[in-house]
Amino acid sequence: MTMNFEDKQELNLRSLIAKYCKKGQAAKARRNLIKAIEEGRNGYLKKILRSNEEDAIDDSDEIEFRDNVDQLIKFYSILELAILTGYVSQPLPEPLQQEIIKILGNKHVAAYYEQFYPDLLPQLLYEAIDARKMQEPIGDSSDFIKLLIVNGMIDNNVTNFLWLLDSGSFGDYDLDEFKKTLTNVDEIQSILEGDADFKTEQEVFWGLLGYLNYIEHFDQLLKKVSKNSLMESAFWHFQGYWFERINKGVKRSLVRCVSLLAESSKKAMLATNLENRGAGEEKLQDIEGQLERFIVSVNSVTNAGHGKELKKYHSSIIKARIKKQLQLDMDFFVGAFLNQGSFKMLHTQTDPRYPAVVDFINKRYPEMVFSGVNIDRKSSRISFLNLAFKNTANGSFLFFHLTNNSLSMVVVEKVRDQLYAFLGSINRKEDTNLPVCAIVDLDYQIQYALPKGSNDNLLAKYEDSLPDIEDMKRYLVEND
Amino acid sequence: MNHYLFIDIPEGLKSIAFCSFLKPRKLVVFIHGFNGSAQGTWGEFSDIVQKHKSFEDADIIFYGYNTLRTQAANMKVSLFDLLNKAAKPTEMPYPERELPEEFRYEKIYLVAHSLGAVVARLALLHAYGSKCDWVSTCRLALFAPAHFGSNIPDNFKECFEGSWKLLRGFTFTKCPILKDITAGSSLLEDLMKMSTEVISKGEGEFCKAIMVVWADIENVVISRHFLQDEMEQLIPKSSHVSVCKFTYFSPEPLERLVRVL
Fold first, then answer.
1. Which residues contact A26 (CB under 8 A, 6 or more apart)?
2. ipTM, interface predicted TM-score of the complex
3. Is the dihedral of CA A426, A429, A435, A438 positive or negative?
4. How many residue pairs bridge chain A and chain B with CB atoms within 8 Å of each other?
5. What are the chain A neighbours of B23 within 8 Å (beta carbons)?
6. Pick from B50, B165, B169: which is nearest to A142 by CB?
7. pTM for this one?
8. I need a surface site. Which of A269, A332, A358, B59 has the fewest CB within 10 A?
């Protein structure tokens, strides 16, 4: 009995979940995160998922928790690649979608994979599910399987070697000690013969060889799919974070290790091949040739240019989503903010006022339609968030202007001129002639309000349809 | 794609299995040679088997094992343990496919390269000696088999691929397997003796390889006809290492194999 394509895709999804998420580290992370999220333990999540640049991570429980979360995020990356290659069907089952939204949509989890350790694949997964959007398959599922097989080459020995490479150590045995091992012909010979005295050295040594094999196979795979630049980029991003780190400083150490090994191999060969010069030459060429090939491969896989296509794709997804939210073609904003060239909804994840304000307006004022969002980052501390709603009853626009310490509303009739003027006046800290309704600070204390019935013509015209500031204040406090 | 997502199987070293979406009729086990790896030895076989019609109804195992640390006789026991379990798929960690517990494959193909051919044949003889009922369904398909060993065991370093080429300067004389694959070794003599005995009893179909492919440029193993194996074929311009490597640019290894499956 043959099986149809959709049935196969369903089985494929079940297989992926069984292999990468149902047990082990990813499963632990899933359980722990869902529990913490459902119990509202935001302070705990904020602390444990912090950036290590902000505060070093050296508690073993924290390290274990974060390692588990890394595996869960890896699973989500796999899921995204499975979707992009048509290996699984869309939409994903509803319970799985809800779970992904719950986990990846949590602001502290989002900060982890969006800001601190940027990873595009889970971002794409979240975006697509959140927007209820089907993604177009762009690649071949057999290449996806190949990627998973190649990824399986990262075993415990390789992980141990990478730990050393990334400034870790096993007791006193660190990278410098390992480099000494690599210069010692007798020690390497003992490792190759399985001498039990060198257990740590053995594991790290085989880890180095295993990682070189991995790099070679990964490079071959990238070349195989290179005609499909987006697929190539997506595959690169699967290991992107680590490769970017290699590019930044670890690469030199990796190349040095391999060069030392090659030198020791040549020394060993010269010591034993004195009689047979011909065979010796061939071996020398083999060793040097392999070293050159390795350097080419490592330069190839660490080339950050591989990552550009997916970044562009990601940007286009975000822009398309925002444009769809706009009821009018408001060409002066489509979400302009930059963080190392990537397009991110910073404040949607970290500023609680944005969803709260949108929610408040949606619930209380159904005639107001969300039109879009604009974020303007002036410095690392100060940024402005502008939300626009169109009043479909009378055609006006209601803008919320949020800064780090204030929130103001303004009603404008004409989008472009008056909004520019309003934003300009706020930036220059001038008094404005525009109908600013209220300015509140983060404690929702009203600092300034135009009383109803004021002489401002625009306010008078629209004041009945303005949100009640006290009502909004109460709502924001209750939902903070 | 005709198979479930690959499964890591605990036997051997980084062995993986692909299970057919269909009710399987055959099992195909790929066994690498000296210093090979479960999939690396075979090029893109692990890719094509998931799509090619000849493997649609096949469960497939890519078996890996450490060839440096032990002797061929030990390797054969490990392979036998895997085969004895894999011959009954309901005992493997495969996805649920509603196969009855007594389900058995119609045929089990052992596709082996170089030293792997020796280990495969030894494992089947071990199964015969253990009176396993599945052994009569087994057939060997061999690439550059090492049944007569090598005159210059050091040439086995030609099998070094990828990062292993960096190690070509070191010696591997203490590797137990090298003694086993030296021409005229007691192991190879035993292999010949046991195979001859089984065939002479009329019970050794599993001992007669249905495909033998030699490399065109063979510097590693001694090429000689083995007992009642099928007559040998050559793949032009192939080496000891490349003879079994399927790639989309060099499809001959696949073409030769599917003719006999």
1. A20, A68, A71, A72, A74, A75
2. 0.92
3. positive
4. 108
5. 1
6. B50
7. 0.79
8. A332
